[in-house]
């Protein structure tokens, strides 16, 4: 049996230039909203009621500069949320409240952009991680602080949207990129990672080999370790220890961590433990700025009830498809537009799709798998068709496989590949 190591020690943090050393870390702030949105019990409603005033005080209007009036519908009654919804989680690394604790950055960058889509029947969800260096078109934006209008850009990294107009501009940019309406959003700094991981008592992460990354302050043994606090931050911060040493590998670490996080909060009765649930809700409310459209207790509880019973194998993490081989944009990620268009068309229509198999498996990862027909009894001979028998329903066709996408489900507990290069 693999020995589980509990590691909560302090990581070493140096001065950071811009945010290259922390890209991908902020994805874990999705935990805060995951806790708020996936807890479907009456206890969740009680905890959310207590923190609603904090949520409202910290809220951000994402309608600035928008003509669509996104999120203007009245909040639903508890338990009555209908259809699907889209939610954007944005992470920035220079929150004034955390000072220079985690290094100094020159400007605000939306280095983590996580789009959550929940299907209309509330049985499936897709979480799309958008690389911070993805080259995209930027729409005209109005600066939320000064009112200045920033002109449209033909091609620039997606993480420049925050500096051009705050959270509303990030939402506009991702809407234009994906073709999806995004009425809900949340904004957080990566200082919340430490508090979030501590609040759940740590998250198990598995490594194929020992890792030692002094730059990130990460040292973990092979096998499964339960990481919390600064160690959890270091795991998500590590660029050279896990994956292939690239910024994109941090997205893989982020997805592994969040998948394990979901299994943790679903499997250890966190969502039925009132003190822990209140602690999580209170911490999230204090560290995450929600859009005004989301800063209603009824809205959050209704979303929670819609998501409470989702199967972990139908909660899928996918990376926005892109290439790093375009000589016109060295060191950047250029969208694979056709594949992305196909993926988002299916997401918008709630159509199932599957991913290419991982190297060690023989079968593709099925997203939203169709129900299978009951198997015939073992040893039974095929029967001749009976004209009087009712016609059977044909088997559901296999979902289309979208080669070129990478990702995992929340049920996937495979280990992270350690960078040995």
Automatic annotation (TrEMBL):
UniProt superkingdom: Bacteria
Membrane-spanning parts: 21-49
Region (Disordered): 360-421
PANTHER family to which the protein is assigned, alphabetical: POLYISOPRENYL-TEICHOIC ACID--PEPTIDOGLYCAN TEICHOIC ACID TRANSFERASE TAGU (PTHR33392:SF6)
Residue spans of biased composition, Low complexity class: 376-399
Annotated Cell envelope-related transcriptional attenuator domain residues: 110-265
Keyword Transcription: no
Alphabetically ordered keywords of this record: Membrane, Transmembrane, Transmembrane helix
Annotated protein name in UniProt: LytR family transcriptional regulator
UniProt-listed Gene3D superfamilies: LCP protein
Highest classification ranks of the organism: Bacteria, Bacillati, Actinomycetota, Actinomycetes, Micrococcales
Family per similarity comment: Belongs to the LytR/CpsA/Psr (LCP) family.
Pfam families: LytR_cpsA_psr (PF03816)
Presence of keyword Transmembrane: yes
């Amino acid at each position: 049996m693999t020995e589980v190591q509990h590691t909560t020690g302090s990581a070493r943090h140096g001065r950071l230039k811009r945010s290259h050393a922390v890209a991908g870390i902020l994805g874990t702030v999705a935990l805060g909203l995951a806790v708020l949105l996936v807890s479907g019990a009456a206890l969740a409603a009680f905890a959310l009621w207590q923190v609603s005033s904090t949520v409202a005080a910290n809220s951000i209007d994402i309608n600035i500069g928008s003509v669509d009036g996104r999120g203007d519908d009245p909040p639903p009654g508890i338990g009555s949320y209908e259809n699907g919804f889209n939610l954007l989680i944005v992470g920035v690394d220079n929150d004034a409240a955390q000072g220079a604790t985690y290094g100094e950055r020159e400007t605000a960058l939306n280095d983590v952009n996580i789009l959550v889509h929940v299907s209309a029947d509330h049985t499936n969800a897709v979480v799309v991680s958008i690389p911070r260096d993805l080259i995209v078109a930027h729409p005209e934006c109005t600066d939320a602080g000064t009112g200045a209008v920033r002109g449209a850009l033909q091609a620039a990294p997606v993480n420049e949207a925050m500096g051009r107009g705050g959270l509303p501009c990030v939402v506009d940019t991702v809407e234009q990129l994906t073709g999806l309406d995004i009425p809900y959003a949340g904004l957080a700094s990566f200082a919340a990672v430490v508090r979030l991981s501590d609040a759940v008592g740590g998250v198990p992460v598995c490594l194929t080999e020992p890792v030692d990354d002094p730059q990130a302050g990460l040292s973990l043994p092979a096998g499964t370790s339960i990481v919390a606090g600064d160690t959890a931050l270091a795991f998500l911060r590590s660029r050279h220890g896990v994956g292939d040493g690239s910024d994109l590998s941090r997205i893989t670490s982020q997805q592994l961590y969040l998948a394990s996080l979901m299994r943790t909060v679903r499997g250890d009765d966190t969502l039925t433990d009132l003190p822990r649930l209140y602690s999580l809700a209170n911490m999230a409310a204090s560290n995450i700025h929600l859009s005004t459209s989301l800063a209603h207790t009824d809205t959050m509880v209704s979303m929670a009830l819609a998501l409470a019973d989702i199967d972990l194998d139908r909660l899928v993490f996918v990376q926005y498809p892109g290439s790093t081989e375009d000589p016109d944009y060295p060191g950047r990620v250029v969208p694979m537009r056709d594949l992305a268009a196909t993926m988002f068309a299916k997401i918008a229509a709630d159509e199932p799709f599957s991913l290419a198999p991982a190297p060690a498996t023989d079968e593709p990862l099925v997203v939203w798998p169709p129900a299978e027909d009951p198997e015939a009894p073992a040893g039974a001979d095929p029967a001749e068709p009976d004209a009087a028998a009712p016609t059977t329903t044909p088997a559901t066709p296999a979902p289309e496989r979208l080669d070129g996408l990478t990702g995992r489900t929340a049920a996937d507990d495979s280990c992270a590949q350690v960078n040995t290069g």
